[in-house]
Design a protein that fits this description.
Blueprint lengths: L10 H29 L3 H15 L4 H5 L8 H7 L9 H8 L13 E5 L7 E5 L1 H21 L7 E4 L28 H10 L12 H14 L3 E5 L3 H9 L1 H14 L10 H8 L6 H13 L3 H8 L5 E4 L9 H7 L4 E4 L10 E2 L7 E3 L5 E6 L16 E2 L8 E7 L7 E13 L2 E9 L3 E2 L6 E2 H14 L6 E7 L4 E7 L5 H15 L3 H9 L3 E8 L3 H11 L12 E2 L10 E4 L6
Parallel strand pairs: 3-4, 4-5, 5-6, 16-19, 17-18
Antiparallel strand pairs: 1-2, 7-8, 8-13, 9-10, 9-11, 11-12, 12-13, 14-15, 16-17, 18-20
Length: 580
């Protein structure tokens, strides 16, 4: 049954109901928020107690008996007895779970297997238990309370939480285990999910739309209906910019649909789903008049967005690593709102959460047990018995970078996320983290071993040196050119500037011995530059989705392992000098 129901009451009463739902949501998260702030005073003690409870709870499982969880008495003993793991180590266990076996990784039953393609691998299936969901909630709660405490205007408004279109509905394993959440809000508890639905601008039903243009059209329609939008939460910042790119073209059709209570999307829409969505799109002549006036009087997108949603206070999205390239565009498009980074959240676990005015995101110390492998021991010595042991949360050094290792109630033990973080400060004894990039994202066609974080650092440096502010940029091997290629959309930069930038990037890449050696052998030509004429972010997202990635899993990268991008982007090569 669809729980999202727009109010039949006048706007004033509708806003009052929304404010009441926000208040109840805030109050329901307050106890967990208080517990988190108490926990950050003594992170070492909190983390070890969390670990030992988790091990006792799962001592009778297959993995618990293998490593004798019942006899482990400290974090140090746990580190000595249980090896580091990767997803591949769990394949037999996840296969057993999918066939219906119980007590494989966790004592409590597996509720579902959540698929994730991530940025670095084919589809993975992550076991979810009720306690793992509660661990996510323990990190979500203090973030939400902090938002409402610093931005009280959020109490008065509605929210847009982007949803990921589902690839397949009602799919189960051979053992009857559901694959995937029905909707993204299932990460929350039951009645908190009902409170969230009460403030949503866009109904969760849109997740069932499989045509991307129709998905964007329907999403924009419900966004336009709301004047009280106060919070936007998306993953990738380009998701929102691509959505808004359609607004100037589609607004006359959208206004017509809002006025008549109809739906006329540009692509296909299943008839039963269309009827359900139409029932939520009741005619709203007052809002129609307001929208028409705004578009007739303004042509600056930033001014249009400010007048459409004057109460918008915050946009939550990725802002670290390569996403830092795209987040500033949101700030330009929404001058009335604050842009806040999401911290580090993976399908496997909730690593860090942001707070207003804080440099870095706080480690989610009440959610999972964390370890950190110093970057200089990773990724190549992780299986070497001589490497330095991972550090615990209270042992980290300011300014240092680490690879994150988690132990969760979903059955992942000393699991390597391959996410790199930098320590930016402390909140009490709780470390603050900044996501740096993926540890193990390597492009290696001829032995050149290019690492994504090194390419990103080099790309950032040459962009600053030549004052280039790209709309989109990515480096990938291009087989037709026999060389790595910088695919860049930078409308305000001349070809000559981009050529110089490419030469600078080539020199930076040659600081990698393996890349330089491949160049000397003639296995690779000098880096080329491909100017994208437009639509770079959209083409990138579409290509990634065509290769099986879900919209919510697609992360901005500086380096991509796939080839063939010259056929994906619209534009042309800019020839560089052969002696680069």
């Amino acid at each position: 049954m669809n729980r999202y129901q727009p109010s039949n009451l006048p706007a004033f009463h509708e806003n009052m109901l929304c404010s009441l739902a926000n208040l109840l949501w805030y109050l329901s998260n307050l106890p967990e928020s208080i517990a988190f702030h108490l926990a950050r005073r003594n992170v070492s003690n909190v983390q070890e107690k969390l670990l030992l409870r988790l091990l006792r709870r799962n001592a009778a499982t297959d993995v618990g008996r293998r490593y004798d969880f019942a006899s482990i008495r400290s974090a140090a003993e746990y580190q000595q007895r249980v090896p580091l793991s990767t997803y591949e180590d769990y394949l037999p266990a996840i296969q057993a779970i999918s066939e219906g076996q119980s007590q494989v990784l966790t004592q409590e039953p597996v509720l579902l297997l959540e698929p994730t393609s991530g940025s670095t691998a084919a589809t993975k299936y992550i076991p979810y238990t009720a306690t793992l969901k509660a661990e996510f909630q323990r990190a979500f709660a203090p973030w939400l309370v902090d938002l409402f405490s610093h931005l009280p205007g959020l109490f008065l408004g509605q929210a847009y939480w982007s949803v990921t279109p589902v690839a397949q509905q009602n799919k189960r394993t051979s053992g009857g285990i559901p694959i995937g959440f029905e909707e993204d809000s299932e990460y929350l508890g039951g009645w908190q999910r009902h409170l969230l639905h009460a403030v949503l601008v866009v109904p969760p039903l849109v997740r069932l739309i499989d045509d991307m243009e129709t998905f964007r059209y329907i999403t924009l329609l419900f966004l336009l209906r709301s004047r009280s939008l106060a919070l936007i939460s998306v993953w990738n910042p380009t998701f929102l910019t691509l959505l808004l790119n359609r607004l100037l073209d589609w607004w006359p059709h959208l206004v017509t649909d809002i006025a008549a209570g109809t739906l006329t999307p540009p692509g296909p829409l299943a008839s039963d789903l269309k009827q359900q969505l139409m029932s939520l799109n009741r005619p709203n002549p007052r809002r129609v008049t307001e929208i028409q006036t705004i578009f007739q009087e303004e042509n600056d997108p930033a001014v249009i967005h400010t007048r459409l949603w004057p109460g918008l206070r915050l946009i939550s999205c990725w802002t670290d690593a390569q996403a830092a390239l795209y987040a500033p565009e949101l700030a330009r498009l929404f001058p009335q709102a604050q842009i806040q980074g999401k911290g580090l959240i993976a399908t496997e676990g909730f690593v860090s959460l942001p707070f207003i005015g804080q440099n870095g995101a706080a480690l989610a110390v009440r959610s999972h047990f964390f370890e950190f492998l110093p970057v200089h021991h990773s990724p190549f010595t992780v299986h070497n018995s001589q490497f330095t042991p991972p550090l615990l949360a209270h042992e980290l050094q300011l300014g240092c970078q680490y690879a994150v290792i988690i132990t969760t109630s979903g059955g992942l033990y000393r699991y390597q996320l391959h996410d790199l973080v930098e320590i930016t400060g402390y909140r009490g004894t709780c470390p603050l983290l900044r996501f740096v990039g993926k540890e193990n994202y390597i492009s290696d066609w001829f032995g050149e071993k290019l690492n994504e974080r090194h390419v990103r650092a080099a790309l950032d440096a040459v962009c600053r040196r030549y004052a280039v502010r790209p709309v989109f940029a990515i480096v990938a091997y291009e087989s037709l050119a026999g060389a790595y290629t910088l695919f860049i959309e930078a409308p305000t930069s001349a070809d000559e500037i981009l050529k110089q930038m490419g030469q600078g990037l080539e020199l930076a890449l040659q600081e990698n011995y393996h890349y330089r050696y491949c160049r000397q052998l003639g296995q690779l030509g000098p880096l080329q530059v491909f100017r994208i004429q437009g639509g770079g972010p959209a083409a990138y997202l579409s290509f990634c989705q065509s290769h099986g990635q879900r919209a919510g899993d697609i992360k901005p990268l500086a380096l991509h392992r796939l080839s063939g991008w010259a056929e994906i982007f619209q534009g042309q090569m800019i020839t560089l000098e052969a002696n680069c």
